[in-house]
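To: structure desk
From: M.T.
Subject: fold request, one chain
Message: Could you run this one when you get a chance? Sequence is below, nothing fancy, just the single chain.
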Amino acid sequence: MAKADARINDWPRFTFADGEFSFAVYKRMPQGVENPPAIVVMHEVPGIYPAVIDFAERLLKEGYCVYMPSLLGEPGKDFSIPYVLSSIGKACISREFQVLALKQASPITDALRALCRLAHKECGGVGVGAIGMCLTGNFALALMVDESVMAPVLSQPSLPFPVSAQHKRDLHVSDEQLQCIKSRVESGAVKVLGMRFSHDRSSPPERFERLREELGKGFEGIEIDSGPGNPDRIPRMAHSVVTRDLVDIDGHPTQAALHRLLAFFNEQLHG
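Reply: Done. Structure tokens follow.
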């Protein structure tokens, strides 16, 4: 059995419950920062693995209080393909996730909105940031229904699974939620940031096209070339923009995407 990343033990943990759902949340405050804004980091498949902890610790260094709910997997466990497949299988049969549903958000997003309200209450400021990745990618959009969420980021949003043309364009929110999201964006108070690799089949381009149609200039989409012969030699199977497939060296497009994400949080949460 692979040994868990010991860094997870440095994160104080509490159990958050709302309605029918409860889950562990790992929370850390940055050192030496008064009244830091909060960011809710919703991990990708397979769970809170080491690269997700790396990203969360980067946000800490940037001066944010980080809330990291554990929705799948074993916190700290290393990434592996069998672990990924196991987590996807659990998500497919879980009541928390709706991996194929059209025009509706996964049920767990109600509890995650309540977590955002708690984070805002505890940290204050203009609001909280929220980033979803992979299966949780579109959760950040659904959380925007709550006015506490001021900086939503969709990284490689993968739900609903793109099994049809309709699924590829779906945003994993209800029509009523979408109207609320559009109203918030049109007011000028909130923008949405999205990131994906150009040839990532699990996060299809049609989804970003739909976001541009619905949100106009309120949506900023970053699409990193992962096609054959791309100048940065990014593999076609690249998926995780700010975690596993991040190349944190000057001039690399994934590093540029990370820097833009950090600037977005700064613009929206320190505004």
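Reply (cont.): The mean pLDDT is 96. Let me know if you need anything else for the meeting.
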